[in-house]
Amino acid sequence: MKSFAIGALSEKTGVKIPTIRYYESNGLLPAAARTDTNRRSYDDATVRRLKFIRNARALGFEVDAIRTLLDLADQPDLPCAEVEAITRRHLADIDDRLARLSALREAVQATVDQCERGRISHCRVIEVLADHEPGVSEDL
Q1: Are 50 and 56 in contact, with CB atoms under 8 Å apart?
Q2: pLDDT of 119-132, one tens digit each?
Q3: Which of 47, 52, 65, 120 is the most exposed place for a label (fewest CB within 10 A)?
Q4: CATH number reported for the structural domain that contains residue 47 in this entry
Q5: Residue from 45, 47, 78, 51 nearest 66 by CA
Q6: Structural domain of residue 55, as residue ranges?
C-alpha cells in the first residue's frame, strides 16, 4: 500500500497542510497513521476523501453537510434520498444568497446612478454610507 506524507497529500489534492490538519481534527478525515518517527502517513483512500471534501467546499457545502455526505458515501447501498435532500437544501441556500446579492447590487447601482460626479461634499454615495443604518437598505 502506498503512503504519503502530509506535504505530498497537500500537493496531490491542492489542499493546504493547515487545512488538512483542521479536517483531521474535526473528523472529516480519519486520524492519520503514524510512522516510526511520528509523522503523519496517508493512503490513496485519504487522497480520494480529501478531494471529495475540497470539491464539496468549492461548491459551497458547509462542513456539517460534508460530514453527513461522507458518512452516506461510506454506505453505498443506502438510497440516495438524504443526499438529494442535503443538496436541495444547499441549492435553496444558494438561490436565497443570489436573491439577496441581486437586491444588494440593485441598491448599490441605484446609489451610483444618483451620483452627480461633482464634489465629494455633495456625493450621494458618501452621504448614504454615512447615514446608512445596518440592515436598512431603503436609502440605498
Answers
A1: no
A2: 777 677 777 777 76
A3: 120
A4: 1.10.1660.10
A5: 51
A6: 6-60
- How is residue 135 written as a grid cell? 440592515
Per cent of the chain over pLDDT 90 is 71
Q: What is the DSSP string of 78-126?
A: S-SHHHHHHHHHHHHHHHHHHHHHHHHHHHHHHHHHT--SS-GGG-HHH
Cell of 112: 451610483
Q: Do 51 and 85 belong together in one domain?
A: no
pTM across the whole model: 0.77
Q: Is residue 75 part of a domain?
A: no
Given this model, what pLDDT does residue 89 score? 97
Q: Classify the C-alpha dihedral 13-87-89-96 as positive or negative.
A: positive
- Rounded to whole angstroms, the Cα distance separating 139 from 103 reads 13
Q: Which of the 8 DSSP states describes residue 63?
A: H
**108 domain residue, yes or no:** yes
Does 86 share its domain with 47?
no
Give how many domains the chain has, as a whole number. Answer: 2
With beta carbons less than 8 A apart as the criterion, state whether 86 and 69 touch.
yes
The answer to whether residue 74 is domain-embedded is no
In whole angstroms, what is the distance from residue 108 CA to residue 129 CA? 10
